[in-house]
Write a structure and sequence with these properties.
Structural class: alpha+beta
Shape: globular
Number of domains: 1
Distance between the termini: 15 Å
Protein name: DNA-binding protein
Radius of gyration: 13 Å
Number of strands: 3
Largest sheet: 3 strands, antiparallel
Order of helices and strands: HEHHEEH
């Protein structure tokens, strides 16, 4: 089975993902607070930017980051 996270980007209505929307984007797999913590450690997605008080990520960069962190688990 191949992991294809790019299909999430095809269904997302914008070219960016706001940090407070990452739980909706990922189906609850990543929380905004966890992502904020990873960003503070320098382990978050590349290309993060701020508009006012909001932090956002380009969808393509966010998908690349997710793919880098994801792994398939085999059934026992």
């Amino acid at each position: 089975m191949d992991l294809n996270l790019k299909s999430m980007a095809e269904r997302w209505p914008s070219a960016i993902v706001a940090r407070n929307e990452v739980d909706r984007f990922t189906g609850g797999v990543i929380s905004p607070r966890s992502l904020a913590n990873l960003d503070s450690l320098g382990l978050g997605p590349e290309g993060a930017f701020r508009i006012g008080r909001k932090v956002a990520y380009p969808v393509a960069a966010f998908i690349d980051w997710l793919e880098g962190r994801a792994s398939l688990r085999r059934a026992a």
